[in-house]
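Example record

Each entry pairs one chain with its bound ligand, NDP.
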Amino acid sequence: MTDTLAVLEPATEAVLEEIPRGGVQDVDRAVAAAKAAFPAWRAVSPADRALLLRRLSDTVVDHLEELAQLEARNAGKPIGDARGEIGMVAQVFGYYSGAPERLLGDTIPVSGGQAFTVREPLGVVGLIVPWNFPLTIAAWKLGPALAAGNTVVLKPAELTPLTAVRFAELCLEAGLPEGVVNVVVGPGSTCGARLVAHPDVAKIAFTGSTEVGRSIAAGAAETIKRVTLELGGKSPNLIFADADLAAAAAAAPSAVFGNAGQDCCARSRILVQASVVDEFMAELERAVTAIRVGDPLDEATEMGPLISASHRAGVASFLDDGAPIAIRGSAPNAPGFWFPPIVLSPVGPGDRAAREEIFGPIAVVIPFSDETEAIRLANDTIYGLSGSIWSRDGGRALRVARALDAGVLSINSNTSVRVSTPFGGFKQSGYGRELGPHALDAYTEEKSIFFATV
Ligand code: NDP
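Structure tokens for the complex follow.
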């Protein structure tokens, strides 16, 4: 009897689709298919692999609206955001279509011959991805993995599998050979864990919680699998008194409430220089109360619901015990996992809401006195993914950027992700970098060859 998975629409709580739920045997079948496809895929000439990735990018563009609608409904995200995300998926394959012909090695001076390096694909790579940016995060891994000549098994989150399933069909439509991209829908505890344990899987690329990342790193140690981990965050948004306060306040809500706060880069700790806290809060209130929360398919919507009932309960737990709600936005009073954007203030740096990743639309505001305290507070976390610095003093902004223990920083902007620049964390936000030119290193082994000439 086939097990069935009912995929919900978070904005309505209704069943969007019922699909077969895979198990360990499906993972084993997918790994076998990927293993069988690997020799031919790695042998495809660099120019032809580039062409196939370019076609894949074009195919995603051809199906952009269809994929965006599916993602918006399944993940509960505003349709405008979903279009941007699927656009990024296409960009990633376009960017990495340049890689097969630029996978360069070194020549190294030695005596008695010629020494040089080449980069070899790893083999079968397991990709385990979360529900917050389902196809986009998958693409960050698929692009460099495929460009380098690996075959893959992708396990989407059970909450949001639909775009991954459709994407696998589009890969065939674009001309990728059978077995190069395999998708298995099933629970992390069985299907994900099997990928981690499987002896024929060379590497796991994971995005998700720090807790599961820890178990993946431990499990992968058994077979000395390569692992890259993109985990949680509690990122600071540092606003100095000399900043353009209106610009910083106008930008702060989308930096934390974008995707309803379900973003590993969410700037959920807003650190504001004490002398301008009151002025900043007034500006912030205007911006937060203006956020349009509602139907993801309405073009005017800026924030959708949370992903599930249990996740909403976890987010709501941060409002227990008389939490200091300074600003509260709106949310529909209807079926759906709705939650309004909320700003807590005053909050101490030791409070639970200031320390734990909430992964929902709750921000905290914490005052600081000077640059030294700002850096100390910003770094006072187990995480180190991203952050922002707002100041008109360029020297200060750069000093602070260098002092922060985080992988992705922006000055006078809240940008985190660009296809062409590296993305990843310090500390318990994970290790390894995605995107940019160097992501290929994480999907290849470096081989050194010496050719004797005497
Ligand atoms: P998880 O880390 O549990 O899920 C991420 C992916 O890992 C999913 O595909 C999941 O499968 C899979 N998985 C779960 N358990 C295992 C396992 N033992 N072995 C292998 N794979 C596994 O995240 P959650 O969905 O539970 O979210 C919990 C919290 O994680 C959030 O509140 C947030 O704090 C953080 N998070 C961070 C993300 C980020 O972008 N860095 C993204 C998502 C969450 P399945 O769900 O299908 O069972």
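The first helix runs from residue 24 to 43.
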